[in-house]
Design brief:
The complex is a heterodimer of chains A (about 375) and B (about 270).
Chain A: E1 8-17, E2 21-31, E3 36-40, H1 47-55, E4 62-67, E5 70-71, E6 82-85, H2 97-106, H3 112-125, H4 141-153, E7 159-163, H5 171-188, E8 191-196, H6 199-205, E9 208-213, E10 216-221, H7 223-228, H8 233-238, E11 243-253, E12 256-261, E13 265-270, E14 278-283, E15 289-291, E16 299-311, E17 315-322, E18 327-333, E19 348-354, E20 359-361
Parallel strand pairs in A: 3-8, 3-9, 6-7, 7-8
Antiparallel strand pairs in A: 1-2, 1-4, 4-5, 9-10, 11-12, 11-14, 12-13, 14-20, 15-19, 16-17, 16-19, 17-18
Helix pairs in contact in A: 2-3, 2-4, 3-4
Chain B: H1 15-38, H2 55-62, H3 64-97, H4 103-110, H5 112-115, H6 118-131, H7 138-161, H8 167-174, H9 179-207, H10 211-216, H11 224-232, H12 238-267
Helix pairs in contact in B: 2-12, 3-7, 3-9, 3-11, 7-9, 8-9, 9-12, 11-12
Classes of the chains: A alpha+beta (about 375), B mainly alpha (about 270).
The complex binds adenosine-5'-diphosphate and magnesium ion (MG).
Magnesium ion binds near residues 47, 48 and 164 of chain A.
C-alpha cells in the first residue's frame, strides 16, 4: 500500500433496483485521500445510491468498491471505515446532544474516560460547545446538522459521506455552512464526499467534481476546468449558464477550426481534438461583450437585436436575437448606474467574444 | 357591558346547544353515576338513599366466590397482556419493517379479530377448544384473550412505527452498532410508547371482556364480569354495585393511562421511556 493510492476506488459499479431501475450505471471513480469530492447531478441521477453503496446500505449489482485498500464486498455498514451525514440528519431524538455524539464510540467499546474527552472536542469542532445537555427537538435544523456532523467526525472515519447536507437550510445559512464545511475539512484532513444537486454549492466547496446523469458519470474535473472546459452539452448546461449556438464544421486550419454559425457566417476558433459535421458552440454569458461599434479582430462578432434587459442589481442579463432568430444571453456588470438603462430594447448592438473562449461541444 | 350575540361558530354559547350537550351527558353517564353512588348506599335495596357506607365493599371483598372471580380476572388479564403484547409488538414491527408476498392480505387478515362480532369469535373459540378436547378453564380463557388482544397491540405498535424515520436505524449502523444494538438503542425506545399503550389496551380489553369469556370459561373458572352477571340474575345488590365500581375504576385508570401515553408519544418524539 502506497500513500498516494486512492482512498476510495469505485470500479465499474452498477446498481439495478428490482431488475428494472438502473440507478447507477457502470461508474468508475478514484478519490484521493484528503480530497473534498462532490457528486453533482440532477435529482434522480443516482448520487444517493452511489453514496449508500460506499456506506454499505446497498450492495452493487456488479463492480467493486475499495476503501483504503480493502474490498468492501460483504462488509457490513458498522465495519466500514466511513461515516455518513444523513440528509434528514437522523439525530437520535431520545438522546441528548452529548449522548448522540458519544453513541458511535460507546457502541464500539471505547473507554468511558476516552469518550468524556472526545465528545466535547467534537462539539467544539462544529461550534456546538455548551449544547451537551440539549435534546434534539430543542435545536434548529442547522444545529441538528452540526450534531450529525460531530457524531460522524468523532469516529475519525477515513471518509465522511454527506448526502445533500445543506439542502434544507435557508440561503444565507447555506452559504455560511459551505465555507464552514471547507474549513472543517481542511482542519480535520478527512476525505469528504458530498452529494449535491446544486452546481454553485459543488463549485464553491469541492476540490473535484463528478457530474452525473442517468446513473453515469459524465465528467470528473476540478471546478475551474468543469466551468471553463465542459466536455458535453449536458455538463455545459448543468454548470452555470451557457449559450449554445448551432454550427457546422467547414474545415480545419492547423490548430484552428473553421465553423459556419447559422445566421453569422464563418469564424475561426482555436480547438484541440477532432470535430466534424454539426457541432454546438457554447459561450458563457459573462464572456459576451456588447458594443455600439464593431469591435476589433480575434473575436466572434455579429449584430443582434436587444429583446429584453433584466436587472439584477450588480449584473444585468441582456437577451439578444441574431439575424437567424437564435437566442443569446449576455451578462454584463452594471459598472455605472446607467449601464442597464443605456441598452435600449429593440436597438441593434454588436455582440462579440474572444474566439478562444468559444467551446466546441460535439456530444 | 352588553354581551355580544354569539357568532355562528360559537356553538357552545347557544342555549339549545347547551341543552343537547346536557341531555347527552345525562344519557351517557347517569346510569354509571347511579351505579357508583348506590354502591355506597346503606340499604339492601337499590331504590332509596339511606346514608353513606363502605360496608358493601367489605362484603364484596369477603364474598369468596366474588373475590376468586376477581383474582381469576387478574391472572387471565396479566398473562394474556404479557403474551399478546410481546407477540403483537413483534407482529406490528414485522408489518412495518418487512415486505413479503401477500403482505396486504395478511395485513387485512390480522384485523379480522377486531372487526368480526365478538359472539362469533366466542363460538369459534368454543368450537375450536371442544374439537381439540381441551377442557374449558382459565387456560382456554387466557388463550382466547391473547387471540383477541393481539391484533389491537399490533395495530397500535404499527401505527406508532409509521412515523419512524428509518434513517435513524441506518445512522446507528453507520456509527458502528450491530443489528441488536440498533434495535435496543434506537428502534425500541421509539416503539415503546406504542408498546405500553398496546399493553394497557390489552389489559383493559381482557379485564372487562364478557362475551368471549362466557363461551370459553368452564365451571369454577369465572372471571369478574361473568360473576357479576350471574349475581345480577338474582337481584342487583349493592355488593354487585361495589364490584362493578372496582372494575370501572381499574378500567378508567388504564384507559386514561393509554391516552396519556399515546398523546405524549405523539407530541414529543424524544420521549425518554
Ligand atoms: N430502494 C430503491 N428501490 C427502487 N428504486 C430506487 C431505490 N432507491 C433509488 N431508486 C431509484 O434510483 C434512481 C436514483 O435514485 P437516487 O440515487 O436517490 O438519486 P439522487 O440521489 O441522485 O436524487 C431513482 O430513479 C430512484 O427512483
Ligand atoms: Mg438523493
Amino acid at each position: 500500500m502506497t500513500s498516494n493510492q486512492p482512498i476510495i476506488r469505485i470500479q465499474s459499479v452498477t446498481k439495478i433496483f428490482n431488475r428494472t431501475v438502473t440507478a447507477v450505471d457502470d461508474v468508475s471513480l478514484d478519490i484521493a485521500a484528503g480530497e473534498f469530492f462532490a457528486l453533482l447531478g440532477p435529482s434522480g441521477c443516482g448520487k444517493t445510491t452511489l453514496l449508500r453503496m460506499i456506506a454499505g446500505f446497498e450492495n452493487p449489482t456488479t463492480g467493486r468498491i475499495v476503501v483504503d485498500g480493502q474490498d468492501m464486498q460483504g462488509v457490513d455498514p458498522n465495519h466500514r471505515p466511513v461515516n455518513m451525514v444523513f440528509q434528514s440528519y437522523a439525530v437520535f431524538p431520545h438522546m441528548t446532544v452529548a449522548k448522540n455524539v458519544a453513541y458511535g464510540l460507546k457502541v464500539t467499546g471505547v473507554a468511558n474516560s476516552e469518550i468524556q474527552k472526545m465528545v466535547p472536542e467534537a462539539l467544539q469542532l462544529v461550534k456546538l460547545g455548551g449544547f451537551e445537555h440539549r435534546m434534539p427537538h430543542q435545536l434548529s435544523g442547522g444545529q441538528q446538522q452540526r450534531v450529525s456532523l460531530a457524531r460522524a467526525l468523532v469516529k475519525k472515519p477515513k471518509v465522511l459521506l454527506l448526502d445533500e447536507p445543506l439542502s434544507a437550510l435557508d440561503a444565507k445559512l447555506r452559504e455560511a455552512m459551505q465555507i464552514e464545511l471547507v474549513n472543517l475539512q481542511k482542519s480535520v484532513g478527512i476525505t469528504f464526499i458530498i452529494v449535491t444537486h446544486s452546481q454553485s454549492e459543488a463549485l464553491s466547496v469541492a476540490d473535484r467534481i463528478a457530474v452525473m446523469k442517468d446513473g453515469q458519470v459524465k465528467q470528473v474535473a476540478d471546478p475551474l476546468a468543469l466551468y471553463e472546459k465542459p466536455n458535453s452539452q449536458f455538463c455545459a448546461d448543468f454548470i452555470g449558464k451557457i449559450n449554445q449556438l448551432e454550427a457546422e464544421v467547414a474545415g480545419v486550419e492547423g490548430k484552428n477550426l473553421v465553423v459556419d454559425i447559422r445566421g453569422v457566417g464563418k469564424v475561426v476558433i482555436p480547438h484541440e481534438g477532432h470535430a466534424e459535421g454539426r457541432v454546438s458552440l457554447a459561450i458563457r454569458p459573462e464572456k459576451v461583450e456588447l458594443n455600439a461599434h464593431e469591435p476589433g479582430d480575434e473575436r466572434v462578432k455579429f449584430l443582434s437585436k436587444v429583446a429584453n434587459v433584466v436587472y439584477y442589481g450588480s449584473t444585468s442579463q441582456v437577451f439578444l436575437e441574431n439575424a437567424a432568430g437564435d437566442q443569446l444571453m449576455a451578462e454584463i456588470r452594471n459598472r455605472e448606474s446607467n449601464t442597464a438603462t443605456s441598452i435600449l430594447i429593440g436597438s441593434e448592438v454588436w455582440v462579440s467574444w474572444k474566439a478562444a473562449d468559444t467551446l466546441v461541444l460535439t456530444e | 357591558m352588553k354581551k355580544a350575540r354569539p357568532t355562528p361558530l360559537e356553538y357552545t354559547r347557544k342555549r339549545w346547544f347547551q341543552l343537547v350537550m346536557l341531555f347527552n351527558f345525562i344519557f351517557l353517564y347517569f346510569p354509571i353515576v347511579a351505579l357508583v353512588a348506590f354502591s355506597f348506599n346503606n340499604s339492601r335495596r337499590n331504590i332509596t338513599w339511606n346514608g353513606f357506607t363502605f360496608k358493601y365493599y367489605v362484603k364484596a371483598f369477603h364474598n369468596e366466590s366474588l373475590f376468586d372471580a376477581f383474582l381469576n380476572s387478574l391472572i387471565v388479564a396479566g398473562i394474556s397482556t404479557v403474551v399478546s403484547t410481546i407477540l403483537g409488538a413483534m407482529l406490528g414491527l414485522a408489518l412495518y419493517r418487512f415486505k413479503f408476498p401477500a403482505k396486504n392480505a395478511f395485513d387485512g387478515w390480522i384485523h379480522l379479530p377486531i372487526i368480526i362480532p365478538e359472539i362469533c369469535m366466542g363460538v369459534a373459540m368454543l368450537a375450536f377448544f371442544s374439537r381439540l378436547n381441551i377442557t374449558l378453564g382459565l387456560f382456554t380463557i387466557t388463550v382466547s384473550h391473547i387471540a383477541f388482544s393481539l391484533p389491537f397491540v399490533a395495530v397500535v405498535v404499527r401505527a406508532r412505527m409509521a412515523g419512524f424515520d428509518h434513517s435513524l436505524e441506518e445512522a446507528a449502523r453507520d456509527l458502528g452498532a450491530n443489528q441488536w444494538q440498533t434495535f435496543k438503542d434506537v428502534t425500541l425506545p421509539y416503539m415503546m410508547p406504542g408498546v405500553v399503550a398496546g399493553a394497557l389496551l390489552a389489559l383493559t380489553l381482557s379485564l372487562d371482556d364478557f362475551v368471549i369469556t362466557f363461551f370459553t370459561s368452564g365451571p369454577g373458572s369465572t372471571t369478574l364480569p361473568i360473576k357479576i352477571f350471574s349475581m345480577v340474575r338474582f337481584s342487583v345488590t349493592p355488593e354487585v354495585n361495589a364490584a362493578s365500581t372496582v372494575l370501572i375504576v381499574i378500567t378508567l385508570i388504564l384507559s386514561v393511562g393509554t391516552m396519556v401515553i399515546q398523546a405524549r408519544g405523539g407530541k414529543d418524539k424524544g420521549l425518554p421511556i
